[in-house]
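Hi W., the nicotinamide-adenine-dinucleotide complex you wanted:
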Amino acid sequence: MTTTKLVYVIISFMTIAVVGVGFVGLVTAAVFSKFGNTVWAVNRDKQKSEELKKGKVPFFEPGLEELVKENVDAGRLKFTVEYPEAIREADVIMIAVGTPSAPDGTADLSAVFEAAQSLAPHIKTGAIIIVKSTVPPGTNNKVKEIIKIYTKKQFYTASVPEFLREGTAVEDTLHPDRILIGANEPFVIKKLLELHRPLNGETVIMRPESAQLTKYSANAYLANRIVFINQISDLAEKTGADVQEIIRGMGLDRRIGLHYWWPGLGYGGSCYPKDIKELTAYARRVGEGDGLFEKIDQLNENRLLKMLSKFEKAVGGWNGKTIAVLGLSFKPNTDDMREAPSMKVIPVLTAAGAAVSVYDPQASGHAKKILGDSVATYAANPYEAVKGATALIILVEWDEFRSLDLAKIKKNMTTDAVFIDTRNLYDPQRIKEAGLKYVGIGR
Ligand SMILES: NC(=O)c1ccc[n+]([C@@H]2O[C@H](COP(=O)([O-])OP(=O)(O)OC[C@H]3O[C@@H](n4cnc5c(N)ncnc54)[C@H](O)[C@@H]3O)[C@@H](O)[C@H]2O)c1
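Structure:
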């Protein structure tokens, strides 16, 4: 005889408010609405809000526009510029505003504090305010102090740092490696466990300070791997070794692993540069300065110009030459230009007298807004970009650049053309056989 057990799972949907609709805020809002919660996303820009209501996402992130549209149409995802409308019913409020570097390198937390001040008067009793933005330990206490100025209602704070990567942000949010719940009160922990239950990732409960420092530690460790392998690349070049062979030889050691080795021009993007700078400053603030983080930052800062001077020698000077740049965003599958290598490389080339022609599958529009129309020629594809060029520089490993028609590239470039592969996408021998001079990193 078999017995059938009926298991009832009680799902209680929540009302959530997300403050800030950038990469983190918008993806988070869309994913939590997909699970059946009602999500209000608050933003300061009315036009952006109106576009989002129509399901139009202002930046490129695979799968996001469909997800936003689906949940807007289902009535679960709502956009507003009015804090009272978004906050008054919210059980959980997530602060996901930017924390860029201030001129002295510390994290500029003004948007977090401004968000806390704006939401505070409208919270309901028992609301939980989560800081998702990357902030140094101790920030939650300041957020608490600010909110207390504007309300007498009882509320809680927690830290749930975000680990998504642009380019795979939706997937990363749905299937995170881990979810850190930085909270002290059992009520908050229970509620946040319930909220995150539909996500496919291991949940770790910890102190808010640990959660905040874990986020910086993870980014600093990954940035450190990039700086480390760049140092090894420089040694490889001096000795006739190939860094790609070294990566394989080293990475097969299970303590080290084969993933996340990126020799190149150094780390860039929206997070590592600012987070390493803040961690350096934080270490100094607590009396632990002059250490590893400072060195990581410094080595990375010097990296790009050092590599450009190596490339310049290989090309025989930039002056009077046409140089094609492939890849403008800071990494593939995004049009985010924050700390993108192209934004430093192109001005160096033009200042040295080169004519620059560029191509990117998604980011040309954003690049044009930053660089202007006249700094570079914007091509429709890689082959148009390399026409008459003496060198091509691959800056970003977009899939499209992994399988270029080398014969067509060679035909469109000058006879003495140099193929500069800053992502080590190609076998140097193949490029030489195509009649081009190969310059890579650490090989
Ligand atoms: N982008 C990433 O890959 C990533 C990954 C993990 C963590 N983070 C962290 O998440 C945070 C947000 O990063 P992001 O990349 O989404 O930034 P972003 O610049 O894309 O978005 C921030 C948004 O906040 C809005 N904003 C600022 N102040 C506001 C206010 N007072 N009220 C309402 N909206 C306000 C801005 O207009 C903007 O839309 C940062 O701390 C970042 O370090 C980012």
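The chain has a mean pLDDT of 96.

W.
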